[in-house]
Amino acid sequence: MTNKILFIANWKMFGTKKTVKTINNVIKFSKSKHNKKAKIIYCPPYTLIDSIVKKTKNSEIDVGAQNCHFEKNTGPFTGSISADMIKESGAKLVIIGHSEVRMQGETNLIINKKIINALHTKLKVIFCFGETLKEKKSNKTKLVLKKQLILGLKYVKNLNNIIFAYEPVWSIGTGKVLDNKNLRTQFLYLKKFLKTKYKIKKPTIVYGGSVNDKNILNLKKINEIDGFLIGGASTNSKKFIDIIKKTIN
Ligand code: PGA
Predict the structure, then answer these.
(1) CA geometry: angle at 173 spanning 170 and 176, to 5°?
(2) Is the pTM of this model over 0.85?
(3) Would you say residue 2 has pLDDT above 90?
């Protein structure tokens, strides 16, 4: 999808107009001659998409939403936003399958519908998947990842418009990260699986889960990782730039 390293900021239910003002430095950095290697994507709450789209207009930064409804256009779904609406807001991507949404009852079947509709709307999809601690402890990781991928990708055609985001659930917001050796093995397995089963020539897979300005020095050593999905540390522009600089330098 891109040869640049991806830095996807997932703001979750954080961020105000004040936070938006602080991204000026990130925009400046993204345009600087020091940055030839990073591709930045902001996924703020829906309420801030419009202002970030405007702010980043003359930059290479893209904006994404954090979720969408499984119905494509419109419908009687109070509190929901469709892929069409997201597209109209100026966002180019949407996160689907995040574990914090799965925990609210989102099934693999719903995720699959969302992916199909979002791609049909010409949004790129950031497809999250990952095992829970219980699944990891009972040695079910591979089985679970495979199941999430197979069910999520059923009947999906535009596979090249998907950024895969491997996020072990036990690693999100906990400060815990898999050691490099095992994380690398996991990425090698996932890439091979996507290449052989889905004929994706160069699958893009990012890592997410407690990425910060310290552990990034270790994580960047894993060549198989194409970028990072960053929650907590991404709402702080200084930390976010620090993570990017440490990765690309
Ligand atoms: P975290 O979140 O960086 O705060 O662990 C990552 C994510 O949930 O996408």
Answers:
(1) 55
(2) yes
(3) no
pLDDT tens for 129-159 read 999 999 999 999 999 999 999 999 999 999 9
Of the candidates 24, 25, 17, 26, which has an alpha carbon nearest to the alpha carbon of residue 44?
17
Alpha-carbon gap, residue 17 to 129, rounded angstroms: 30
Hey, which of 8, 12, 104 would you mutate to test ligand 1's pocket, going by the most ligand atoms within 8 Å of its Cβ?
12
Given the residues 34, 71, 98, 120, select the one marked as catalytic: 98
Q: 98 an active-site residue?
A: yes
Dist. CA 12–CA 101, nearest whole Å: 11
- Answer yes or no: are the C-beta atoms of 61 and 30 closer than 8 Å: yes
**Longest distance between any two alpha carbons in the chain, whole Å:** 49
Q: Which domains does the chain have, with CATH numbers?
A: 5-248 (3.20.20.70)
Q: What is the dihedral of CA 209, 213, 239, 102, to 10 degrees?
A: 0
pLDDT tens-place string over residues 78-131: 999 999 999 999 999 999 999 999 999 999 999 999 999 999 999 999 999 999
What residue's CA is closest to ligand 1, atom 1?
A: 231
